[in-house]
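Sat 14:20. Reprocessing the chain from the morning session after the first attempt stalled halfway. Input below, unchanged.
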Amino acid sequence: MSAEWDKRYGIGSQVMWPIGMSVRGNVGMAMAVKATPGSIGYIEFMYAKQHQLNTPLLQNAAMQFVSPSLKTFEQAAKQAQWSRPSFYQSLTNLPGAQSWPIVGVSYLIVHKLQNDLNDARETLRLLNWIYSNGASLAKEQDYWLVDDESVITRVKAAWAQMRDTKGQLVQRP
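Finished this time. Tokens:
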């Protein structure tokens, strides 16, 4: 969101900070922050909550200061347009008075051409189960599942195009 930040620090899963220490992963960062008085770290909300770390108020696109929570993550997600054919969607700095300004989406990449028909079918069964039954489990960990019906319909249509190396459809219509 900031050209100055990009120029000075860059973007990516590992940013080269001018000071501080490097730790590996969310758990490592949570433990380092908890053990270092006055420290600041960037981790998934679930880990901050599990490790009982203080979280900040951040100013969102509506100029409101909001706390991280499942509610503010969901409010941001409701503002998403979900129009890209690849399903990729940035949920950063979206409008809405109660939208958390930094929401990420986790993706599962599944190849359209599958080597093993039975493994592919089991993968689709798992994905269907997640969409049908996973919402309560996700919410227990302060995650949300994409609940936009148009996106779910598009995702399931993409699953229906999966084939094995012999051309056989993985999911029966």
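Residues 72 and 100 are 5 Å apart (CA to CA).
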